[in-house]
User: Fold these one by one.
Assistant:
Number 1:
Amino acid sequence: MTALESAATHEPRPLWMPDPAEVAASAFAAFAAEAGRRAGTTFADFDALHAWSIADREAFWDLVWDFGGVIGEKGERRLVDGDRMPGAQFFPDARLNFAENLLRRSDDTTAIVYRAEDRREGRMSWRELNALVSRLQQALEAEGVAVGDRVCAMLPNGPEAVASMLAVASLGAVWSSCSPDFGERGVLDRFGQIEPKVFITCDGYWYGGKTIDVADKVAAVAGQLPTAGKVVIVAHLGTADALAARLPNGVTFAAFTAGFDAKPPRFVRVAFNQPLYILFSSGTTGVPKCIVHGVGGTLLQHLKEHKLHAGVKPGDRVFYFTTLGWMMWNWLVSALAAEATLILFDGSPFAPTPLVLWDMAAAERVTLFGTSAKYIDSIAKEGLRPRDTHDLSALRMICSTGSPLAPESFGYVYEAIKPTVHLASISGGTDIVSCFVLGIPDKPVWKGEIQGPGLGLAVDVYDDAGRPVRGEKGELVCAKAFPCMPVMFWNDPGGAKYRAAYFERFPNVWCHGDFAEWTEHGGMIIHGRSDATLNPGGVRIGTAEIYAQVEQIPEVIEALAIGQDWDGDVRIVLFVRLKAGATLDEALTGRIKAKIRTGASPRHVPARIVAVADIPRTKSGKIVELAVREVVHGRPVKNVEALANPDALALFAGIEDLAR
């Protein structure tokens, strides 16, 4: 039994229990009551409601539409070919507009609060947001942007990005974005595939106390996007005018939107599966896949997650630390549909101090605070205790994703941040622009566990033979079709790449690529990505099981494990990044191995432990085991531009320590 299993299944009591009065007053309870009325029964708890949501998907998603107050024409049919995956069609007769559903308010209350590391900050009312969207919409129309056209953005996380996306969506066009820290090749590998009609970018950004000028990169990228009739420059460093003048088709954001009246925006209603977003796979093993998400599936799924699972209600203040290169940005912006206020932050979460995000959370009365598991681990290692230094009385929920949240991090949140907060470890990803497993309002939080599956999603764990399993590890699957499956992959005639990505392992079943396990509480543990699973002696081991032990060692900042082909088998090699002043001597090596042996199992103990100065990760902060594995085996990594710190890969090439 691994430490993750032990922590999750043998804790004497949960870390958090829902308040019955709060649950009774929640949107979840109201939804369950209406579901019971429609189904002619009573749903005693989440598990009963979830079972119904799977058994009668037509009725469930019909109620999500109504309960979420979706603006649009629902049409007659709810689900056609529901047993086909891919091929199922939800609401095939519907007509709706994504932006219309997010801009359902136009009053003077606050829609967006934004802060940036350079001290740029401000507020935007719903009225002001509608006005900016309208001016952008008119400007985009003047450039010929219409239904199905692509608009791409390389922007910091600010109000201009939100308004631009809404303007694009209002026209029935397609939005795709990345953050300005992407390299030239990384941007072109993404946007070059989808041929944008307009490219929206910036003159630079701030990070870690430094200004980063991107003028040369913008010029290089723009020169290789021949379909972009306009390159729109948002000013962040005060050099937008000069950059716009440098480009033959350049224009500043201010000039692009000038001269248009701030009349109410118009909304072009489109089919349920009309493309809305193009997101990209990480691209660390080749050119990124272009994953196309539809208008209706994205809207319904996000309304469900925000309102029912996260309890977001009008006036709530929702924050997620993210960039435009991570699908959590798309998820965050959808909170507007629940009439919440978006709290945006751009910059380093540790500048000017490691408490900058908590300063903002306290000052802005944040109700939902979203971040990554790595951030929680980092502030824990810094010894920070926000509960002692900040007023977090408004904070109701903390969400964590990006990688599995270690059991010790669960304990840290309740001990050092807020004892009464609802901690929701969530997991899903770019492939579904949402979550498969996430927080549940009427269930306890157990250490090391994600609470359970999303409503309407037939989530399960299969063994290699395609059989559901309990109490053992297997493949995370979804056994029935759901609305937020990708509409398609871009440039994938016949859908061969799409089918290969999700449906080849188990016919007619979505195989997500996570190595997972149900717990005795009905929760789930994610043990890492299936393609990064280690197989020493033929036994499958999730990398998260090793990290959960190693990162408890005070000297270790972070770790990365791979399987190295060795002597006809596979051996585990563990790389560790150490704190300043620490040395990987025999004593520390012995402590690391002992911790893994006792906390996990002897099979988890690495054959080699190697200290490295840095560990490569994607732009969204995920470590890249596969890329390191390729380097160690002397194979080329196809797309280093996908990495936030590509130079780190060189540290793993020809490491002498591995030869012994």
Number 2:
Amino acid sequence: TCSRMEGPSVCVCVYPQWASVNRAVLICDQCCSVHRSLGRHSSQVRHLTHTAWPPTQLQMVQTLYNNGANSIWEHSLLDPASAMGSRRKTAVYDKLHPNKAEFIKAKYQMLAFVHRIPCRDEDLLAARDLSKQLHSSVRTGNLETTLRLLSLGAHANFFHPEKGTTPLHVAVKAGQVSQAELLGVYGADPGAPDVNGKTPIDYAREVGHMDLAERLVEIQYELTDGLAFYLCGRKPDHRNGQHFIIPQLADSPCYFVCACVTWVQLSNRLFEELAMDVYDEVDRRETDAVWHTTQTHSALATAAAVPFLPVNPEYSSTRNQGRQKLARFNAHEFATLVVDILSDAWRRQLGNSCAVLKDGLTAKRRSDRSGSDSQDPEQPDYDSVASDEDAPGGRASRAKHLDPDVSDGPVSVREFLEVKGALAASEAKIQQLTKMNTTMSKELRVMQEKISKADKKSSVSEGDYDNTVNDSELEHSGVGGKRLQGEEVQSREAEPMPALPTTEEVIQKTEQITKNIQELLRAAQQDQHDSFVSWAERIHVAVSSMVALFPQDPGSAAARAALRSLVGGARRLRDECRGACRPDRTDLPADPLLLTQQVIQCAYEIAKAAKQLVSITTKENGY
């Protein structure tokens, strides 16, 4: 950690020009080059002078830094009793790679030196207890305690069950501006209602903290404000009810009109993720521009290049791949995508569909309108953005100059949205199949109850019957419920029809299949492709177990077709999942999205075939 001041957190580096906002430390150019490679989820980097800072946010960082926030991230190194107390910190003469880089990653990404509270077996609510402590601490001015609790896992949006408020409500009521800023950096929602339906913004206005209320509104619209500022250098005037600026490209129509169908296909969750990813890419490009402007050492500038968004381990592999593709957009294509997101965010808000904008922060529709002589607060302000040719020194041309070539050429907005549309279609298919799976499970339970009741009604002692075969028995003997004459009975006794399994047995095996399909769909929703093979194997075993119940020739054309479909679907599912994990197979899809679609289709065939077999055996057994 870098420092300009003497003290317990003095740094080996000199002249720090950067700050990590969420870690509340100052860093030099060398350390900044490593921090940038960690990603915003680990370290949010800003230049102290060349980046526009909200004054209260900068004050919060300075306060934490001056009060030794660095000791939070180096707790075990500073503790003589700790096993890591003997580990040496990097020195000024150490090489950036690997010495300093490994230390910075361990310190800020892995949080290897943060004080950890020992977990007790009887206390499974450690995070809840930390969050309750956070709820109490934010009413005071002790920022270090709040940062320490957040570093240990306290939740910034924790809703206190007894108090009925979040930590941000408490900080605002107490007038703790810096606490509110710190909570905002860690994702606290200024629009979250308390038990009375009031938001932190409402309380700030009630108690007369108007500056704090305006700052909370800025935090609420941080994402869309950042996107607009990236394109036109202006932010909306929230004080007068203007919450959106939607720039328009000067040299071509916006793609929003032709791509509106694709946008509408995106669920709120997928749109939120896309907007957050684009915001991160905007931050990367802007930070990269400042980096190249301030660097005087060309070797460091080249070595510290961050060509695309770093991998976030909390995101799926598919989402991380999409995030990295954003770096391949040229300036005009990326500007088009930003304008489209701003347009659709505004459209969704007008449709009473809250769009989550950043780290769980929501933009809510403002209820109070200004007078007719002022601008309609629900109407966005439109700015014209010059093209690369018209403004060679503008933001767009600067972004174009910084566009990296990741490997396989540029990506158009249309192509990128097609992938997002496919994701939306896959998500819809998963939800449809999940609903079908749930419905089938309910139907199976109902069938089991009916069968149980029927068995109880028909259960009598064997002495009540003689050995004569009557029509009623034949109707329940699996021969289709037809009345047969004596000759037909004798013929069937001579060549008996193969006996189908009982409905109870088929239902039991079907439940095993549906449970495994449910887990497979859950893995597909979370893009956990590595677990596909194990679930496919379990489904194949469950299918094989069901097929073993039936005779080789079930005698029914419908049963034969259902069994073929069941076995074929399970085999294809297993082969698809196995093949995707083999690097030597080039004939099978390597695209995770395509794999997910094929897995969903196979699961659908299996579930449909299992349902058909239940219906067939139920009919044949006379239920």
Number 3:
Amino acid sequence: MALHPVLEKVTARIIARSRPSRGAYLAHLEAARVKGPQRGTLSCTNLAHGFAAFPANDKLLLKEVKKPSVAIVSAYNDMLSAHQPFEYFPKVIKEAVREVGAVAQFAGGVPAMCDGVTQGQPGMELSLFSRDTIAMSTAVALSHNMFDSVLYLGVCDKIVPGLLIGALHFGHLPAVFVPAGPMTSGLSNKEKAAIRQRYAQGKATREELLEGEAQSYHGAGTCTFYGTANSNQMLMEVMGLHLPGAAFITPGTALRDELTAAAARRAALITEQGNEYIPVGHVVDEKSIVNAIVALLATGGSTNHTLHLPAIAKAAGIVIDWDDFNDLSAVVPLLARIYPNGDADVNHFHAAGGTGFVIRELLDAGLLHDDVKTVLGEGLRNHCKEPFLGEGDKGVVFKDSPAVSGDTNVVRTAAEPFSKDGGMVLVDGNLGRAIMKVSAVKPEHRAVEAPALVFNSQEDFMAAYKAGQLDRDFVAVIRFQGPRANGMPELHALTPALANLQDAGRKVALVTDGRMSGASGKVPAAIHVSPEILAGGPLGLVRDGDIIHLDAATGVLEAKVESKVWHARAQAQADLTPSHVGMGRELFGMFRHSVSAAEQGATTFGLPSARDTTVELHGGDNVGNTVPGSDEDFLAKKA
């Protein structure tokens, strides 16, 4: 099947605009590569420290400096359901790696926070910045230079992107990502959402709400809705960083353990010392990044990846922007309906065909690049598979994904999709640029023109809602929620209230420089508005009563205010001190001061460069200035 012309066009322009930084990245990768085990570069004292506590046989292999050492970098903690299963994975991994004559070492742990726990709490303001913290923690774990490949154990929202960003800064090392899998299905997502809406209306008690939540989130594994965590898993599959079909196998099962063991053996076999050297910096290239965008759109994935994918790409020297998402969304069909874009959970999706089905459909439609490297070698079509237990329940065998959907209410072919587009659009105008996810928004709600009601926090909005002040048509403008202001928290508390107002017949929409994530639902929401106010963005010029026009079909986001009046206004001010102190937020001041714009990934690191750049600025007190060699300078010149 010939590639779709839009896929070719977008890929070509990404390759062209990324050429300087991608070239620098690959040069750095080659410079870090060594012949033989990496630990061969260490002194005897260094090396002795690196294996001092190991069992005798493992110590002998490490001492001989002939066989590879596989690092384990894990996001384990036992409070978070998605990461609790990782407690016993290192034992499985070490035994599996020994089978192929190598050694596995637990290199380090990274923090893992749950947006579900911190939602609406001060800790949520650390959430986005935890991604770059995880990347830095990954670098610390690998800085000992003992390792020849890496197994990354992570699942949830910022954790997988953070691990991958860290991995790409060690791009000469092969990487295999190892998920824990989703928890078994509990209370349906539809019932859970209904309880939340009833609680917001005061028609359900707190006890009823808690019982509903507990029946939904009830055991070990990832939450089963298709939010950022499970979108992560889909992207790792289509980028070729998982073993095929690994994403949605539940924890605590024989197949999950055998997949983990198989991933460990594969990581040992693709090192520089083996017959196949597959460094992660070659797996993640321009084509695999485009594949990730396509898979996100085709499955109605999380809007958080309009932040994470640019950040991941940047770590590999690749520059993407929201125009790339928008152009691909116009031609990528929606093949899956998983909550919040449908009633099914990810277990139902897996049973109906799963990731391999979607990858094959997109390949056959010319909407994915097959000519990419994966952890299996050449060709993405190798990942159109589903794992099963081998003979005697030992090992893993991979079979072709089903040719026919098991449930056309959940997953469909590219010839008969749920919609002809990916349901994620770019809107822009005099309020800036923003992302809208409309795959769950009914067509009649995708355009709203109504007076603005301006709030500086979701708490202020909820206070007005509970006071009965919002029974009207309006566009809620929630400002000072960008990464520089307060770390760009998710604003989930708004969802039930806005949904209730829409259900009551009111025309409502949300415009914010904050995030809504994978839980973005049926209410039209322009999110990630850039530039944010602290970067000179125009959202700070909006006043109560201004008519806001938001239209997903035409891509418009504007305040209908006379130009002379608009430009005479002063930027709004807010005391952000409460968001900068307490719950450890004062430790993250450097992130708020150095973070890039949302469209550039909201990152605190720059693009790889071969130039001698002594200073890189990404904003802070230098808003509007560009420095030679900085991200802003490069992006100002991009094709």
